[in-house]
Design brief:
Helicase, Ruva Protein, domain 3, DNA-binding protein DDB_G0278111-like, 4 helices
Length: about 130
Amino acid sequence: MADPELEAIRQRRMQELMAQQGVGSQQNSEQHQKAQEDAKREADERRQMMLSQILSTEARERLARIALVKPEKARGVEDIILRSAQMGQIVEKVSEERLISLLEQINTQTTKQTKVTIQRRRSVLEDDD
């Protein structure tokens, strides 16, 4: 075999290996992504199970309605409730009235202040005299 032939064989073999690794890495990334999705789904299921044990049915329904409108607010309320339960501050099921008072407390703490400032610019064509 001449050197150019050997070099061509080497290049073909390298391309084959690279193609196999590309397929393998693609499969690994798909498996990794699937594992992450499974872990996230399991965490959500555990979270919902814990909330169902902590909240009364009316409170769960209200929280679900809030989640439809403002998912980030519902998630924050869920986090607060779960943290309180883990710290032992919640000893009985959270009723709808208690959930409403918790929501009111959160609303007063997170009210956004809006400030509007108007800056008037003078036109170059205006005459002041």
